[in-house]
Amino acid sequence: MPRVSPQVFDRLLQIAIADLPEEFAALLDTVPVIVDLFPSDELLDSMEEAGEKDEIDDLLGLFVGPPMAEWNIPDAPPETAVIYLFQRPLESATSTRDELAEQIRVTLFHELGHCLGFDEDGLDRIGLR
């Protein structure tokens, strides 16, 4: 399990963003990515209330907000559209810095898939779960 500083984690995130397809990277102009060490109690409580308790234990990232298809298109996305990445769970899920970099990329892509409207089954079908 590699432990990295916030600065190194951010560098790995920036590399992952640079590797995204252009259509996905463009979403990050309007949907912020927030890195927290762990999910907040409020986020975990809201997941539990939404019936997503089974997903809490393996939570590496989370998209919060309505999918893009529900946005009022000339308007900006709702302020609630946010992607969270959780640094310590991502580190715990990997053994090396290279694996961490790959898991950051995969998790970011996965959460962007939710932003685009894919559910977990849809993400499975396209290999993002």
Q: What would you say this structure looks like, in words?
A:
The chain is mainly alpha-helical. The chain has a single domain (6-124), classed as Zincin-like (2-Layer Sandwich), CATH 3.30.2010. The protein is 46% helix and 10% strand. The chain contains six helices and three strands; from the N terminus they run ααβαββααα. It has helices at residues 6-18, 22-27, 41-49, 87-92, 97-115, 120-125; strands at 33-36, 61-64, 82-86. The radius of gyration is 14 Å and the shape is globular. 22% of the residues are buried.
**Share in β-strands:** 5-15%
Would you count the extended β strands for me? 3
The structural domain count equals 1
Mean pLDDT: 84
CATH-derived architecture: 2-Layer Sandwich
- Strand line-up in the sheet with most strands: 1-3-2
Helix percentage range: 40-55%
The CA-CA distance between the termini, in Å, is 21 Å
Largest sheet: 3 strands, mixed
Number of helices: 6
Q: What is the CATH third-level topology name?
A: Zincin-like
Q: Label the overall shape.
A: globular
Low-confidence stretches: none
What class do helices, strands and sheet pairing give?
Answer: mainly alpha
Given this structure, which CATH class is correct? Answer: Alpha Beta
Query: Secondary-structure element sequence?
Result: HHEHEEHHH
What value does the Rg take, in angstroms? Answer: 14 Å
Can I get a quick summary?
The protein is mainly alpha-helical and 129 residues long. Helices cover 46% and strands 10% of the residues. It has one domain: Zincin-like (2-Layer Sandwich).
